[in-house]
Every structure is written in structure tokens, then in C-alpha cells.
Amino acid sequence: MLYRIFLISILGFFFFSCEKAVPQKPVDTKAIADSAVLDFKKKLIASQIDSVFNKYQFNGSVGIFKDSIELYRKNDGFSDFDSQTKINHSTVFSIASISKQFTAVLILLEMEKGKLSLDDKASKYIKEFQKKEYENITIHQLLNHSSGLNNYGEKLMFKSGSGFNYSNDGFNALGKIVEAVSGKSFDENMLDLFKKVGMKNSSTGTAFQGQNFAKTYVGNSKSQKVVDGMPKRLDKNEIGIPAGGILSTVDDLHLWNNALYGGKILKPETLKKFMSKSTERQHPVLGTMGYGLGIMTDNKPVSYFHSGYVKGAPSLNIYYPKTKTSVIILSNIADEEKGKSAAFKPHQKIKQIIDQLENVN
Q1: pLDDT digit string (tens) for 162-172?
Q2: Cα 169 from Cα 2, distance rounded (Å)
Q3: Distance between CA atoms of residues 282 and 287, nearest Å
Q4: pTM of this prediction?
């Protein structure tokens, strides 16, 4: 309704001011209307999200894009608090579990090559699963967290395929399957994928050699402590590169979203498998949602997204297919004393703002 009132006002002003002018060529009223609505939307988004930055003293980077059009972009705070290095468009963040969709895509690409089937048992490819407890877990169950696996070596939490339990170890197993069927290291596979998409500033925690990595911190803008060993520590057992070890930027994740959901990486039928809800997740911050293959899903509005958290680095990447809109929120500090929900409050607020706009489109 707000858009309609604004649009009528703009067009009314245009025609009133031009009614006595000598017509020279047809007026593209649709282009004028689209431009006016877009400008209004940019200002509306900026006013609301700027207030989120101010309220929560958000230290990080936010980018919102409608296909190739930038709707909003802001960097605030420091990538290095000691040297007072400011975050900019080139700052590389740990994106934590957003990494899972990349690992899922590597598996799906191997499927498209005929190297594996999603119904294959993981034990066919990696010896760690060749034990009675795990021998019937399928690749598909690892992708949608329905395997029953929690931490490797422990008893399954439920019969494979009968529930949901979010497992980093499950995705690290998928990384080993990628290596087994491709004959290349996981890092090589991932760097090849980045190159294919044009993600020039993305890497893995073990392969990164750049200079613009945002150090991660626990604390707040007044008092913080650096998380030692980043980004190499992402390869440790409690995380793992396939589960949460990718580093990226707002611009690169925008490229990724457009390429992935635009059908430039996976075949249409494969992309549909990736996006389709095959189980359900109770997210500790965002609530109930569907889960596809390394991606979370929602219907109000339709969106595909994933959050990520490693110590000091909360992140969120969302794609709304109806309007081809990407929302990317990356940060490098978290006040863990206040809990994970507090660390994700800015991300949650920004998601709510864009959800509301999407629901009126």
C-alpha cells in the first residue's frame, strides 16, 4: 500500500508538470515508476538497517542486492581492533556453517558426473563408516542431517532417516567423500568451485593466503579478546573445513547466490533437489524451518538461507527467489557472555525487515 501511494504521487506530479509541454517522444512510464519505487525502497531499507547498526553497535558488513542492483551496503567497525583497521568491501570473514551449502554443491556436482548417488551409503567411500553403527547412513542423510550422527564415534541419536540432528561431523564426512570420488583434496575442489563462480576473494581456512582477513573476537566494541589461531583453527575437530571452514566476502557471496540460484552451477533438477525441504530443523535462534541439502528453507516469504557461527563470527546469508534478492550479514565479534541469541540479534532484525518487504511484493 505504501508503494502504491508513493507511486501514484510520483506519476501524478510528473504528468501535472508536463501537461503543457510540447510532447517530443513517448514517455516510458513503467521505467519512471520502477525507478521511483526502487529509489524509495533503497531509502526505506537504509533508514531501517542503519538503525540496527546504531542500536546494536554492529561490527561487520551488510550487503543487500536485488539481482545485480545494490539496494544497501554498509561496513562498520574494525577488522583488527588493535591496529584500528576498518572493515571495507574487501574484508574477508569466516562464514562458518554457511560453508555447508558449498560442500553440498560439491557433492551434487560429483553426482551430476555420475561419480556417486545420493542413495549411496557413506561406507562405500570412507572406511570410518564401515562399522555396524554407521554402515547404513546414506549421503542424502548426511546432507540433510537425518543420519542420526552427532559426533563421530558416538552412538547414533536415532535410526538413520527418522529424525533431524545437526552434525558438523556429518558434513566433514561429506568432505571426505568428495575427496574419495574426485581424487583431489577438499581444498582443491573448493578453490576450483570459487574460480568457476568468479569468487576471487574466497578461500578455505587452510588454503587462505590473503591479507584482508577479519580477525575474530569475543567481547564487544569496548572490550574484546582475539580468538587465537584463526583461520587455521577452522580445521580443528570441533569444526572442520567442509562443515564450517570457508572464508568469503559480501561481494563474493552475492556472486554465489546469483550463480547458484540462477542455474549457472547445478542442473535444474539438481538445484531443485538442493532447495527442496526434506526434513525440518528447530533453529536455536531463527525458529522452525525446512532443511534441504545444506540449506535452510522458509515459505513466508519463500527464501533459502543458512546461518553460521564459529567463535566470534556470526553470519547469515539469505536468498529470496521471487525478487532475486540477496541479504548477506557478516561479523567478526560476538559477546558470548550474552549468549548466541544476542550475537545474532542484528542478523535477526535485518532478516525481519527484509522478510516484511518481501511479503508485500
Answers
A1: 999 999 999 99
A2: 47
A3: 6
A4: 0.91
